[in-house]
Amino acid sequence: MKLIVFIISLITCSRDALAIGQPASLVFTETIGALKLSDTGSALPIIIDTKDWPGVVHAGNDLANDFGLVTGTKGKVTTSTSGLSNATVIIAGTIGKSSLIDSLVSSGKLEVAAIKGKWESFTSQVVSDPVQGIQSALVLAGSDKRGTIYAIYDISEQIGVSPWYWWANVPPKKKTNIYALPITKSQGPPTIKYRGIFLNDEQPALTNWVRANYGKYDSRFHAKVFELLLRLRANYFWPAMWDSKFYVDDSKNGPLADEMGIVMGTSHTEPMARADKEKVKPWDWKNNQNNLKKYMQDGLTRAKSWETLWTLGMRGDGDTASPTLDAKSLVDVINYQQSILKSTLGLSNLSGVPQMWCVYKEVGGYYQAGMKIPDDVTILWSDDNSGNIQRLPLPSEVNREGGAGVYYHFDYVGDPRNYKWINTIQLSKTWEQMHLAWQRNATEIWIVNVGDLKPLELPISHFLDMAYNMAPFTSPSSTDTWLNAWATREFGLGVATGTAEAMATYGKLIVRRKYELLNRAPFMLSTVNYDEAENVLNEWGALQNKAQALYGALDAETQIAFFEMVLHPIMAGRIVQQVYINAARNSAYATQKRMSTSKLADDVRAAYAQDAVVQKRYHGLLNGKWNHMMDQVHFGYTNWQDPGSNSMPSVKTIGTTAPSAGILGVSVQNSAASTPGDTAPTLSGMDPYTPENRTIDIYARGSGSMEFTITPSVSYVKVNPSSGTVSYPSGTSDIRVTISVDWTSAPPGSSTVVISVTPKTGTPVKLNLPLNKLVIPAEFKGYIESNGAIAIEMQHFRSRTPGADGSTVEIIPNYGRTHSGLTLMSSTASTQTLASAPKAIYSFYALTSSSNAKALVYLSPSFNVNPSAPLKYAIALNQASPTSVSPVPSTTLGTMPGGWSDSVVNGARVVSTNIGKVDPGKHELSLWLLEPGTVVHRLVVDLGGVQSSYLGPPESTKLGF
Ligand SMILES: *[C@@H]1O[C@H](CO)[C@@H](O)[C@H](O)[C@H]1NC(C)=O
Ligand SMILES: *[C@@H]1O[C@H](CO)[C@@H](O)[C@H](O)[C@H]1NC(C)=O
Ligand SMILES: *[C@@H]1O[C@H](CO)[C@@H](O)[C@H](O)[C@H]1NC(C)=O
Ligand SMILES: *[C@@H]1O[C@H](CO)[C@@H](O)[C@H](O)[C@H]1NC(C)=O
């Protein structure tokens, strides 16, 4: 009976109690056997032993406050049960620190076997008659300090207080009734031992905000950050460093971290808990060793009694290589650091002392040179600053005592270009890389550079949720599931699906190119081919409309949080896209002598002005709570570094004098020509399967107005509109005519139709439109060629086959620039051979023939994380023998592989492989994935018709899907 109740309540409550990815222990409607916690008007006592950790009391006070936010009546932290006759209470405490918890354990009322002695674990249980006079209590017992703290914040999150209630203004979800289920919930230890964030590149936004609110990076500021981290179940922190000194700026900073339960670290360039700004000069181990030693010893002495993960090694000044350091002297540095750790901490060995050495930039070169690093030091592998992990533990490195970890970036200052304005992270990509890191046992430390923190709420939550517990993240589709849970927690069930879709789409749009890189010449999107520039702008517009509609459905309080985390990045991002895309279109229109060139110039100016309006809106929220958080310059980059101020791209205007060639101009897709003047272009061909609509643009090239008619030479081709007037400056300067074909009436086979655009005065422009009426066999399932190209999205395979070892190719939804990714699972599968590898088959139907067709394979810009097992795939047409490709050139650790810069700028590495002769008819393209970590996110078969564009042709028409 009890078991049934238990299962039913879990099902009914799973949507109510929102702790992302974690089982619920509370419900909000009366449930058999559940303990009522909230009671109108009386404060819920939260009992914490006087001897327990101060950090536990701190969290307990937050929980008491959270009950107030949710029910209107705050809880009350007390140290004893006396005077609480018959009340319902929460008892929170740490095994070995709380006499109350210890007595419940020894009397057999509390079962802690599942967590005792484990790292950061807790159990929560409803206990009857826990102490004299108390009928029932919800008991939260932690295995250690943070175990208890996480147990407490778990209740906060479940009752409806988001970890982001302060940092992103997520309103607490009001409730009148809260019940604890009669279940035992045990959680921990976390998947990753040390999980945290690095505040970096914090000028101007965060620093200006801190100055305005706290004067400097003081303990009041850090209390807010630490609380957020603990609510997000993180435990590790690298402080801001460019113009601050954590331990010096406020002498309360160090003790506060320790008291609240945060393990302090320092960045890769700041050894022994000292700040970069405290460095002795010259910062030179070879020539100034005694002073450097003293500097390190002093840092250790200062922080020795606080929980610290010691950063070892050293780099040069200001995030650069040290000119006098080599692999041998770096070993001396580390030996010295370990010797003072032992002497200062009074230990004979350092096996219980967390220490890390970060293989960042040039440091990789020392490791590559054979540098031996003590076994008890965690090796912290780095990404390339753009989200691609450079290296992971090799089989020979997985059994090191100190293990390994990952230093990752959501924000960066440096090559190829800074990105520090707003969120530019594709969550599915983060999942793919961190899942790989987890599987390859880089599980000791995950730390992520989060820039100013504030604009990166979403990727921070995602990263830390994975680090805490990877169990719900084993499937490639877990990102979407998580996004739904995240959106439900922050904004409620009503908008969750839409919000999750919107943010998954945002990830795809932004992984194409970061905002700061949008002006890198040549302009990335084609203003000519495939209507690419306009289509991309329309995608952003549709996304913003969707976000705006979701926003409109929310109450005023929730709208603020939604604006900060969803609507703002979408809206502000769309504006930057509009500025650059329409500036490029403006330039193309000027060449075509369109009078509307000036309208596009106005549009660019208006969008650019809108950017400042949206910034102001953000800064004005809640009476300026987040003023300065959007101070970052984001327009007008010319190299990797920030420009001094925003600047609008230049735009052209056009005079009003009619060119001699006539005031009515005609242009078509896939051609830059403007006729008369340029030779009339041939329209791209159409068949019943063509994925895009054909259009003709008719526009004013001078002042005045001009009537026109447009007539196809046959009746089964229709144009809409078939006549009109273009005029300038008043009236309609540009008219887009859509062509459609009534295929039932069209003759079979190839034909050419002439479409005449006839101005009232002047010569008609005659456009040829090639048609091809064909019928694809009904049983065909797959893609149809269009104008010499087949563009394939990975999810739409015809079939797939597992590998001999049970490995499979799997879809990562919403991955890459357009649709989805194809990856090899499991991530620990060994290198596959062609004979036994899993594969996916994509079928296509060719309409033309090509003697040397090519397959363009779009890959993520990932690295060969194991240099002796480089990323690899193979591709073959039909029964041809497969071509194996290792797309990423080998490189030495610390240097970037060939093609790296373009691949991270473009969000894709594109590799072309000849696939031989293709005849009209159906074909199969097989793709084998031969090494885990290889992710393909698009395939384009080029039969000679692929036009230059950034994303490639739009997805071809597919049948049978
Ligand atoms: C204690 O509480 C229970 C249930 O809330 C109630 O049935 C009982 O009468 C109370 N006892 C006293 C002494 O108030
Ligand atoms: C390291 O020192 C601890 C006590 O500080 C001791 O218990 C442990 O056995 C030592 N380990 C080794 C490998 O010497
Ligand atoms: C990771 O560590 C576990 C436990 O030590 C081990 O069983 C597994 O083989 C390791 N994985 C890899 C990829 O080395
Ligand atoms: C083509 O036009 C039709 C009818 O106007 C429209 O429904 C469809 O969305 C258009 N397709 C594209 C790719 O624009």
From TrEMBL:
InterPro entries, A to Z: GH115 (IPR031924), GH115_C (IPR041437), GH115_sf (IPR042301), Hex-like_dom2 (IPR029018)
Recorded superkingdom: Eukaryota
Coiled coil residues, start to end: none
Annotated transmembrane regions: none
Keyword vocabulary terms for this entry: Hydrolase, Signal
Residue span, Gylcosyl hydrolase 115 C-terminal domain: 782-955
Single annotated GO MF: hydrolase activity
Signal peptide feature range: 1-19
Pfam families (UniProt xref): GH115_C, Glyco_hydro_115
Identification of the protein by name: Glycoside hydrolase family 115 protein
Organism expressing this protein natively: Cucurbitaria berberidis CBS 394.84
